[in-house]
């Protein structure tokens, strides 16, 4: 009765057999033509030959009977539809339906891909569940992978190379919101923060990268990071990190920590964050960091000044919190009204792409900075030459479509700034 699938349903049975070499391993899918419950005909399983090997892509693709996929693919079983779905796998078969992703099982087969012989057949639900439970033991969930990675990172007998590899794997995983939160609940945050203070710059760089990715658009992680002392660690790293590429990653993590988080912004300012940014800006003659720093300032200013645009029940609280962040006073005090316009003087090749961002930031800062701008002769000169240059571009009939609207946008920003400075 209830234990059996109805004739309309296709259920899946998964059986496992171990393989020793990776090359032996392939997922074979076979259709079972057996009739349903109480079926009169052919109670023996008949397995069809594999007729086709499907190359998985980045998108989930439904597998048809008789189709097989290469070892290392991600395969999931959808128990509701009975469909097997496949996509490219960076590791191996670790994605299954949510019901089969459970936390806390300790058996790992991260390094062995086993062949899974999946056949569509009509099986008692209990039997099906038993097979699935067996699979759970063999399929490593993301949480299990992260636990294993963190243990390896934390193990004093691990080498630097192993730790670097662990960080890169973590960085890949924490792009998923729930994985980033698992990083916290598994106690990984303090380990990664300590990595920022490592004497090995590669560990610093990769730790900052993991942190930045975990923090991006993830308020729960942002809160826990601040509670775990991330601001101070990041500020220290920002002030002391040496190679440029480490500074870049640390700045990425700082920006991700501060974004839409006035509480963190307030503490960043009160711990001298703008001073550190000022020193970075001045020292960054090559200009690689400059645009990123000014973008960060722009984000903070525009979050605060854009508050009126969104009105919901937490609006009042947001206004109150942003009100406490003294961005404007800090901009003035640390000399940003004079520094930021230097971005327009850049002679870099990618200057053109950065001009728009620089102009938008200057415009956002204008209410605070206009009296400084007005006496900045080199800013006036830069704007005048941009205006001539872009005016000509817009007039030119050689430029059409997107290009043309890009030039028109820049011209509009230049003119808006000139108006503010009159
Ligand atoms: C650390 O790694 C070594 C070598 O892989 C292993 O033998 C040891 O059990 C690990 N220690 C801990 C505390 O996990
Ligand atoms: C790291 O190791 C220490 C001691 O060896 C242990 O107390 C701590 O819980 C470990 N942390 C993680 C996240 O595994
Ligand atoms: C950073 O490392 C130094 C030197 O190894 C150590 O003295 C200091 O306590 C560390 N700081 C933090 C916050 O872990």
From TrEMBL:
<keyword id="KW-0732">Signal</keyword>
<keyword id="KW-0325">Glycoprotein</keyword>
<protein>
    <recommendedName>
        <fullName>Nucleotide exchange factor SIL1</fullName>
    </recommendedName>
</protein>
<keyword id="KW-0811">Translocation</keyword>
<dbReference type="GO" id="GO:0000774">
    <property type="term" value="F:adenyl-nucleotide exchange factor activity"/>
</dbReference>
<keyword id="KW-0653">Protein transport</keyword>
<dbReference type="InterPro" id="IPR050693">
    <property type="entry name" value="Hsp70_NEF-Inhibitors"/>
</dbReference>
<keyword id="KW-0256">Endoplasmic reticulum</keyword>
<dbReference type="Pfam" id="PF08609">
    <property type="entry name" value="Fes1"/>
</dbReference>
<keyword id="KW-0813">Transport</keyword>
<dbReference type="InterPro" id="IPR011989">
    <property type="entry name" value="ARM-like"/>
</dbReference>
<comment type="similarity">
    <text>Belongs to the SIL1 family.</text>
</comment>
<dbReference type="GO" id="GO:0015031">
    <property type="term" value="P:protein transport"/>
</dbReference>
<dbReference type="GO" id="GO:0005788">
    <property type="term" value="C:endoplasmic reticulum lumen"/>
</dbReference>
<dbReference type="InterPro" id="IPR016024">
    <property type="entry name" value="ARM-type_fold"/>
</dbReference>
<dbReference type="InterPro" id="IPR013918">
    <property type="entry name" value="Nucleotide_exch_fac_Fes1"/>
</dbReference>
<comment type="function">
    <text>Required for protein translocation and folding in the endoplasmic reticulum (ER). Functions as a nucleotide exchange factor for the ER lumenal chaperone HSPA5.</text>
</comment>
<feature type="domain" description="Nucleotide exchange factor Fes1">
    <location>
        <begin position="126"/>
        <end position="183"/>
    </location>
</feature>
